[in-house]
Request: fold
Amino acid sequence: MKEKDLYPPLKAYLEGQQYEVKGEVHDCDVLAVRKNEAPIIVELKLSLNLSVLLQAVNRLVLAPTVYVGVPKSCSMLKKQHKQVIKLFRMLGLGLITIDQNARSNPVKILLDPGTYKPRQSAWRQQRLLAEFDKRVGDPNAGGSEMRYGIVTAYRQRAVKIAGYLDINGPVKAALLASAIDEPKARDILYRNVYGWFEREGHGVYRLSPRGQRELKQYQE
Reply:
């Protein structure tokens, strides 16, 4: 398949909407004009990638309504449909699929261009800032991949507990919580998210072999 194979069904569709359609006008794959309305530009592509998006965004200086037309079989659209639609909406672009083998309705408008304003989530923002405030220092380099995971505020608290057990041996959760001023110590020990702790007796915990190994990664 070639990009030009997508042109005939799209041209027929637009002409059915009373547009006059011409191909390859000043590097625009498809230009459609109807009476005194603003023109419509469609870029025909066989796949979706960053280069396609950059080209389509650049067309917005020529016309307020820009679509990208792709085959119905476009792999990225199939694998990441929701994410693709969201990205096009954010960029103010439209998206069309074309099935050049379909006998009827070969063209489908998945998204019309429009102004996008994302809805803010107050709960997520509060959660984000709470994690920021609870972290001690800046333990993660931005963009890094850490072998044992990102050091979250929760992980820092677990490391603090593990460090105390490593030095002092088995201890009651209540005494540990008081010693390191960690009110959530009992819950962290009980949940044992990282497998660092073992229960030795009623309310008494010790560091597990895994905890002993992985604690070395957090010496700083």
Summary: Residues 128-218 form a domain with the Arc Repressor Mutant, subunit A fold (CATH 1.10.10.10). The longest helix spans residues 153-168. The first strand starts at residue 20 and ends at 25. The two ends are 57 Å apart (CA to CA).
